[in-house]
């Protein structure tokens, strides 16, 4: 892929600033891994905060930034030309735009497993005229980055392209750089999975890193899979509107049912994702919220460990059987309780005597 495409969104004066002016934090975005660019497209729907609020310092205390993102960049032209998008990445390599955050979209293929050619690249080397591979860009830029952020499941854990039988040896950024890798600022790789990404999850994560860079936030909290803990600390099931049906042992047998979808293939009880609580866009949507099942797209084992999709997960047979027996008893007890509480108290009636239990203080 040759990224000579259209927007560098930056504040006026972001280049050539004097020492007295605020230096921007540059966002160098590589979307040339094995990917469909779905994460870039999804991010345009972010609302908490929006792309505009991040890029234009619409949030209090947010540092000035310059975004170099292939999806919307207006700069183009040949490498070494007067108007070339890829030049920003060469500047990052040369240390001319320090600090910068490196965002990687798409899985990283193994360029060492073949005799010729390349799997994916990003721009051309002006000395050789040959494409610069995505993995080579990561080698050049990661050591100089303030932070490295992997957006989407492909970049975080390999995703679809890394499933069994693939010819590319694809992997996620942590597999490529090492799970213990840290930036020069001591920040681990930050993984925000999703296929595609839930837009606000990434916008919020990027905002956190910018506040951290400005000294307004502590080290970003990550779990053992390098996901932000406040976003991926609970399961889909824990935030799902259908969870109450599971507890009562009531399961859907068709997709038009509002009951728990575990028997239809939903992996929600074990998947770390907040889409049932957060929705997809502006609090609306999200797979189980609109009748779909969770196929575990935020998990490191996706897709191999969760196929075939739409089949009842292995553990669901035992858990749903247990829940069915327990739920039947719970529903019966709740029916009895409901008969006693679904009526008004006995003292609400007409008559010449007060029967509420009130005792006059005199």
Written overview of the protein:
The chain has 362 residues and is an alpha/beta fold. The protein is built from 11 helices and 8 strands. The chain has helices at residues 38-43, 51-55, 87-94, 134-141, 152-157, 173-177, 199-213, 229-232, 243-247, 275-278, 314-341, and strands spanning 8-10, 25-30, 65-68, 100-105, 121-124, 131-133, 147-151, 190-192. It has a 6-stranded mixed beta sheet with strand order 1-3-2-4-7-8, with helices on both faces. Strands 5-6 form a two-stranded antiparallel ribbon. A hairpin with a 6-residue loop joins β5 and β6. The radius of gyration is 26 Å and the shape is elongated. The N and C termini lie far apart (89 Å). The model is unreliable at 1-20 (pLDDT under 50).
Strand content: 5-15%
With helices defined by DSSP (H or I, 4 residues minimum), what is the helix count?
A: 11
Q: How many strands, what sense, and barrel or not for the largest sheet?
A: 6 strands, mixed
**Radius of gyration, rounded?**
26 Å
Distance separating the two termini: 89 Å
> How many strands in all?
8
Pattern of helices and strands: EEHHEHEEEHEHHEHHHHH
Please mark out the parts with pLDDT under 50 across 5 or more consecutive residues, or reply none. Answer: 1-20
Report the principal-axis shape: elongated
Identify the strand order in the major beta sheet.
Answer: 1-3-2-4-7-8
List the helices and strands and how they pair.
Blueprint: E1 8-10, E2 25-30, H1 38-43, H2 51-55, E3 65-68, H3 87-94, E4 100-105, E5 121-124, E6 131-133, H4 134-141, E7 147-151, H5 152-157, H6 173-177, E8 190-192, H7 199-213, H8 229-232, H9 243-247, H10 275-278, H11 314-341
Parallel strand pairs: 2-3, 2-4, 4-7, 7-8
Antiparallel strand pairs: 1-3, 5-6
């Amino acid at each position: 892929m040759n990224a000579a495409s259209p927007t560098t969104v930056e504040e006026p004066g972001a280049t050539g600033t004097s020492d007295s002016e605020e230096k921007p934090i540059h966002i160098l975005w590589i979307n040339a891994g094995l990917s469909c660019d779905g994460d870039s497209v999804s991010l345009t729907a972010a609302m908490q905060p929006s792309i505009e609020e991040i890029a234009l310092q619409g949030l209090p205390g947010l540092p000035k930034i310059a975004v170099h993102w292939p999806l919307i960049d207006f700069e183009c032209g040949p490498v070494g030309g007067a108007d070339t998008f890829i030049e920003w990445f060469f500047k990052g390599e040369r240390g001319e735009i320090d600090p910068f955050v490196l965002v990687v979209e798409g899985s990283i293929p193994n360029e060492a497993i073949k005799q010729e050619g390349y799997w994916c690249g990003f721009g051309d080397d002006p000395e050789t005229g040959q494409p610069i591979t995505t993995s080579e860009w990561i080698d050049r830029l990661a050591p100089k980055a303030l932070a490295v952020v992997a957006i989407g499941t492909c970049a975080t854990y390999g995703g679809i392209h890394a499933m069994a039988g693939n010819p590319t040896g694809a992997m996620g950024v942590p597999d490529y750089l090492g799970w213990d890798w840290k930036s020069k600022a001591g920040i681990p790789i930050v993984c925000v999975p999703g296929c595609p990404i839930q837009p606000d999850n990434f916008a919020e994560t990027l905002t956190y890193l910018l506040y951290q860079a400005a000294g307004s936030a502590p080290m970003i909290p990550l779990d053992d899979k390098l996901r932000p803990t406040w976003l991926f600390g609970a399961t889909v099931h824990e935030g799902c509107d259908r969870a109450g049906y599971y507890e009562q042992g009531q399961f859907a047998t068709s997709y038009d049912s509002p009951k728990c979808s575990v028997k239809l293939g939903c992996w929600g009880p074990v998947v770390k994702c907040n889409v049932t609580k957060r929705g997809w866009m502006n609090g609306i949507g999200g797979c189980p919220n609109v009748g779909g099942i969770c196929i575990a797209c935020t998990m490191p084992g996706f897709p191999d460990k969760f196929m075939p999709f739409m089949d009842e997960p292995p553990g669901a047979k035992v858990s749903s059987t247990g829940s069915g027996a327990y739920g039947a008893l719970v529903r019966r007890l709740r029916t009895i309780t409901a008969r006693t509480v679904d009526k008004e108290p006995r003292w609400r009636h007409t008559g010449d005597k007060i029967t509420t239990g009130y005792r006059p203080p005199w």
